[in-house]
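Appendix B. One record, verbatim.
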Amino acid sequence: MRISSTSAYNTMIADILERQEAVFEANQRLSTGRRVNRPSDDPVNTPEILNSRSVIASLDQYERNIQSGLTYLSRAEKTLDSVKSVLTRIEEIAVSQATGTVDAASRQNAATEVQQLLADLIGYGNTTDADGDYIFSGYLTDTPAFDSSGTYQGDSNKYSISFGFNKTMTVGVNGNEVFKGGSSGTDIFTAVSDLAAALNSDDTAGIQSALADIQSGYDQVSNAVADIGGRVSRLENALSDIDVYRVELRSSVSDIEDADMAEVISEISLNQYALEAAMRAASRLLEVNFFNLL
């Protein structure tokens, strides 16, 4: 009789624990809104859920990369648009001073303005982002791209980002290329400096030569701005694609792991009732065993 009572008691305890676990799991589903809260809840579909979540995490990182790239490109584009405006003004001065009818005094006054505009150009070359990093210095972001004479102080590297699966893009604009022409382009600072020198020396031929270089430099900056526009467009398209793909993945995961809340509430009620019944039965068994001992 003692063995039978012990066995019945153990069975009751196991049943209560099982019912408690069922109530806990149902309440967890109600709290999270998910049918699948651990791999054991759905071993068949868990690999798909985990893979989708991994892909979503990658998409989130690509989105952050793209936003960072777009912020950089926006800053660079705005700066280079300002450079174009300064070069337009310098070209206007050069054109107005390039004829033989202009006197030396006028050219010296123009030279003063050109020298100030050159300083403005160098200032734009040393533009920083919101974190104080120099955007045209390559990887040497804590170093001004140019010294006061216009000599490049950065390196030849360009900032790149990963913006999709097996997709990378060079986002950085290298100051040595856009302002100094790299190995084969126009050194804008030199061209403007040459213009100022020609104006000061009343050199008509020198002014005309510098004007041609300044026009070439303007085209160089315009090409850089156009290139930035193309990269911005590509990144924005990628961002749109990421949004669409991420929504599809989240919907797929939701279809698998989301719980039917009405069903969960009903399940909680049934499991709670079953638990209370099991506890009442256990209580009665304990009372019977107690009186049998008297």
